[in-house]
Specification:
Elements (H helix, E strand, L loop, with lengths): L3 H10 E6 L5 E5 L14 E4 L11 H7 L57
Antiparallel strand pairs: 1-2, 2-3
Length: about 120
Amino acid sequence: MATLGTRLWTWLRGELVGTDKAGNLYYRQRVKPGKTAGRQRERRWVIYRGEDEASKVPADWSAWLHHTVAEAPTGPEESYPWQKENAANPTGTDDAYRPPGSVLRGAKRAKATGDYEPWRPS
């Protein structure tokens, strides 16, 4: 959730640009008529729906936030059949990947097959 300071800044200076499928809200700094941001880049930020996790931001919105593209996404994200749905980073959760033999997975490894031969200097 956004802090009180972020909410206040957003209310006073923010201009809503759009939302994504997850419900995250994207803002940019509102500029008064007749004024420009000068040499500084415009400020862009996101207010997350739910837990603050940067990996929840889809690629098209991430490009806009990092000034890689000038215009904010307008419609649904263009996707290809080989692309997966955007997913949050599961590290540190129960859904995290745990390889075979991991202590967090029961620490049971497959038996050695006998095809391993250690290197010995000659």
